[in-house]
What we know:
Shape: elongated
Bound molecules: S-adenosylmethionine
Low-confidence stretches: 268-273
Order of helices and strands: EHEEEHEHEEHHEEHHHHH
Largest sheet: 5 strands, parallel
Number of strands: 9
Radius of gyration: 27 Å
CATH topology of the largest domain: Alpha/beta knot
Strand content: 15-25%
Structural class: alpha/beta
Amino acid sequence: MRFTVLTLFPEMFSPLQASILKRAQAAGLIQVNVVNFREYADNKHKSVDDVPYGGGAGMVLKPDPLFAALRALPEPHGSRQVILLSPQGQVFDQALARALACEDELVFICGHYEGFDERIRALADQELSLGDFVLTGGELAASVMIDAVARLVPGVLGQSESLKEESHGDGVLEYPQYTRPVEFEGQRVPEILLSGHHANIERWRRKEALWRTFQKRPDLFERTVFLASDYPLLEELRQEHPEMEVFAEKWRALAPLPKKRRGREPEQGNNPA
Ligand SMILES: C[S@@+](CC[C@H](N)C(=O)[O-])C[C@H]1O[C@@H](n2cnc3c(N)ncnc32)[C@H](O)[C@@H]1O
């Protein structure tokens, strides 16, 4: 998969040259291509911004260098999405990361200064935001999105197992994890994790994940699509933590159907005595 970034500050992408993403690039699983669109400014001073029409503070990115930089990119081999980084865009999340990981190329346009000329929006297939706050530029937002998408590209993470159960994978947060030592400053690893009983460990982890999601992110919990196998865990949690009752309607439909009685019901009324 190819990631192309149009930016005025290529040096801000050095974090992508370390650790897992560095290895993924060396293995040819992903490519990161950073383009300084100042090179496409068609004026003596290579200026890329100007004052806003109508007045106001700050400088606005001009359309022509960005249009020229995008047009100069090599033809995509497959699908390409052009993403404009903006605090006004759809907020990026794991579902979007998964959808973007299916593309062959993502092109990120990083704004800076006071923002960009409105006509630049026409270049983009989608406008994405890192969150409801304002950054000085789109570079950090692009790096975060590249990291989140790249790790979903097959082969980038050594163990694809780690993708299966992590937070946001299926709408719940990940269960608590422990490693050696068994006891640290008076805190012990839960006994069940030392038991070697895999089915019980799986059950404990799912229950903890559900409880943790309820506690930390009730907004996520409200949207979680539970599995039928979650029903007994949720019922146990409801009894242990009565505050979960507010959501109990969400999982009532998962209650197992009452078992059918075997044989015929004894007839009543008309039996000759
Ligand atoms: C200072 S911001 C401009 C904000 C703009 N004046 C506004 O109010 O919408 C400069 C650039 O940083 C990037 N940026 C800022 N906040 C962002 C966010 N939350 N997510 C993604 N990009 C952001 C955008 O590319 C933006 O053009």
